[in-house]
Amino acid sequence: MADPIGIEIRGLYKIFGADPAAVLPLAREGMSKTELNERFRAVLGLRDINLTMAPGRIQVIMGLSGSGKSTLIRHINRLIEPTAGEVLVGGEDVVKMSPEALRQFRRRQTAMVFQKFALLPNRTVMENAVYGLEVQGVPPAERVERALAWVERVGLKGYETRYPNQLSGGMQQRVGLARALTNDAPILLMDEAFSALDPLIRVDMQSVLLDLQKDIRKTVVFITHDLDEALRLGDNIAILRDGEIIQAGTSQDIVLRPADAYIENFVREVNRGRVIRADAAMEPVPAADLPADAIAGDASLEEAGRLMARRAVDRLVVTDPSGRPAGVLRMARVLAAMTDRGESQEA
Amino acid sequence: MDWLTRFPQMDDARLRDLKKAIDDGFRAFTRAYGDTIEGLFEPLRIFLIQAERFMTQTPWIVVFLLITGICWLASRSWRITAGSAVTLLLIGYFGMWDDTMKTIAMIFVCTVISIALGIPLGVAMARWGRVRAAVNPVLDVMQTMPSFVYLIPVVMLLGIGRVPGLLAVVIYAMPPIIRLTDLGIRLVDRDMLEAADAFGSSSWQKLRKVQLPLALPTIMAGINQTIMMALAMVVIASMIGVQGLGQPVLRAISNQYFTLGMFNGFAIVGIAIIFDRVSQAFGRRLQKHSEVVHG
């Protein structure tokens, strides 16, 4: 399997309209989206996007409809041409690639999963899964051999000869996932991949993805409008509004330190116990009287609370990655952090 | 105030001269290039004669089994196959076997030519707006211009015979396959094309693996229409020397032979129904993946 590669987006602008280049300087100077639209009939898709996506991690891009998130992900494999900016994948600028180089890049480096699945209805599950390899010109026997493992891995064993419309939505998206994974590309682009699924199936598919990611370690770019999904999947999250990134960070950063009222509003209903880590709520290690039970620093408060309840204690030692005590977590702090609604920032 | 009551038309002498000049010009063109153009169509003539010879000189039982076999392979329906067999046997029993075979050969050749020219043209129209803008009015003319009108220059150029008849039929029958190929390809879901792009398909791969397969139902409808329209032209084509079921109909019209006309008319209807049912059943079979829907 290929080594994971990072993605770096620098100064990316996308303006839709008759003459984007003419409007670009105005957008750079900060003219508002509404004004650009009213005065120049230009729609500002993305403004000055700068984002570094770490190799082998899940980067979630979250935003409501119209925020430009689907536009942004399409710049990574250049399904949409940017008006200005750079998209560096493994150090190479996708924006500057020739058509042939771009085709090779899409074949080898990226694979994409779509909101509406976009499976070919006239092909069976297996025939859909091998599409990427077919386009690459891999011989038929090898295609099937390579696809088979992924088809089984996503739970489609026994369905290889079915057609997409014989499958439920969840199963269809498994086919979409198998098709993308079969490509064996280091970058996986998922455009609202689970948004069309029922809530239960969606959670199920999230588990499938997280489970897979432990083995495949791809650079996953995941688009969603659902904050719970973003917090569950994302190693890092970028929040997009009106074509601009308004906050980027880990899920805990976003929940604990929302950049503005818009995000604060978003995170108010979040289950904070699942997002905040034990080491974010701990206090310094006391000189004496260390609790007997310990928990890892990257465990969630919910897990810490569960452990306290099970052991009937009200204090835990929080350990750092090397296993040494890094602090102490009190039950009161756990409760305070979990029930805090963002009105009062903790010290 | 003469111009108010009578349309101010071109004066008669000048109009006559104009028509004469065009006629003379075309006649001169015919004299100069007629043979060359006839030569260009020679392969078509040979194709047509071969098809006709095969259909009429092979023992009838072989042809019968062949057609019935094709019906079965295409439709996989006993009903359609048995219906086709009975129709063919009746046609033969009523003495129209040879003429029917000639007509089928003609329709076969016309359909092959229409598909071979029409699908690439339809693809080009779907891809380039300019091609569509240029071809659409031509198609309108092909479909609405009375066939007798374009038969005149064709006959002047190529004389009476099979090839001019073939051209007349193809001109009339080709528009549906062109239009429906264009439509079918343009109707392909944009999401599919985006997915194909995202996986790095070249435009040729996109056409072959995504656009054509997904447009196939529409294209099949076009082929079906083309066959039906070719059959409708059989009688007109017989006026310029195309052999087959049209000839006896023509004779029946000029001599008021009621029964002869009816028999041959029904034979045309019979093979039209066979072609229609079989090609539609074939089209549906290609779409079998869309039949079983998840509940």
Mind explaining what this structure looks like?
The complex is a heterodimer of chains A (347) and B (295). The model of chain A has no long low-confidence stretch (mean pLDDT 90). Chain A has helices spanning 20-28, 33-40, 69-76, 99-108, 125-129, 131-136, 140-153, 169-182, 199-216, 227-233, 251-256, 261-267, 272-275, 278-281, 301-311, 331-339, and strands at residues 7-16, 43-53, 58-62, 84-89, 92-93, 110-113, 187-191, 219-224, 236-241, 244-249, 294-296, 315-319, 325-330. Chain A has 347 residues and is α/β, with parallel strands linked by helices. The longest helix of chain A has 18 residues, at 199-216. Chain A is built from 16 helices and 13 strands. Chain A has two domains: 53-83 and 94-271, Rossmann fold; 273-339, Alpha-Beta Complex (CBS domain Like). In chain A, a hairpin with a 2-residue loop joins β9 (236-241) and β10 (244-249). Chain B has one domain (19-289): MetI-like (MetI-like fold). Chain B is 84% helix and 0% strand. Chain B has 14 helices and no strands. The model of chain B has no long low-confidence stretch (mean pLDDT 90). Classes of the chains: A alpha/beta (347), B mainly alpha (295).
Labels describing this entry:
heterodimer; A: about 350 residues; alpha/beta; Rossmann fold; CBS domain Like; six-stranded mixed beta sheet; four-stranded antiparallel beta sheet; 16 helices; about 20% strand; B: about 300 residues; mainly alpha; MetI-like fold; 14 helices; globular
